[in-house]
Design brief:
The termini are far apart. This protein has 105 residues and is mainly beta. A six-stranded antiparallel β-sheet has the order 1-2-3-4-5-6, with no helix packed on it.
């Protein structure tokens, strides 16, 4: 029985198609006239058929004591012929006084 199970798992491993997935992560500092006003974090995950894109923006530095902002931007979709085709998008934008949301499909 053990011999059969071992062979089954080896066969399953050999015939399984490889899955290609890659994740990118990048952090940026946002400056105006040399003053840091924010930070942006970008994450992108791509596999054979799908992708996820996530961007986060947040106020940082001296000016954030006076004016704060924060944004989250998210999109996902399909990878078709090495091109990204979006299926849905959403974002949330917050400041001291307002909050705006949007979703598209």
């Amino acid at each position: 029985m053990r011999y059969i199970l071992n062979n089954f798992f080896i066969l399953l491993f050999l015939i399984s198609s490889p899955v290609y997935a890659e994740t990118f992560y990048k952090k940026f500092s946002i400056k105006v006239s040399g003053l840091k006003i924010g930070e942006l974090v970008w994450e992108l995950e791509i596999d054979n058929d799908n992708y996820l894109n996530n961007v986060k923006l947040k106020s940082k530095g001296l000016l954030s004591a006076i004016y704060t902002f924060e944004g989250d931007y998210f999109s996902k979709g399909k990878v078709v012929k090495n091109k990204l085709e979006p299926r849905s998008y959403s974002h949330v934008w917050k400041t001291n006084k307002t909050k705006k949301t949007m979703g598209l499909s």
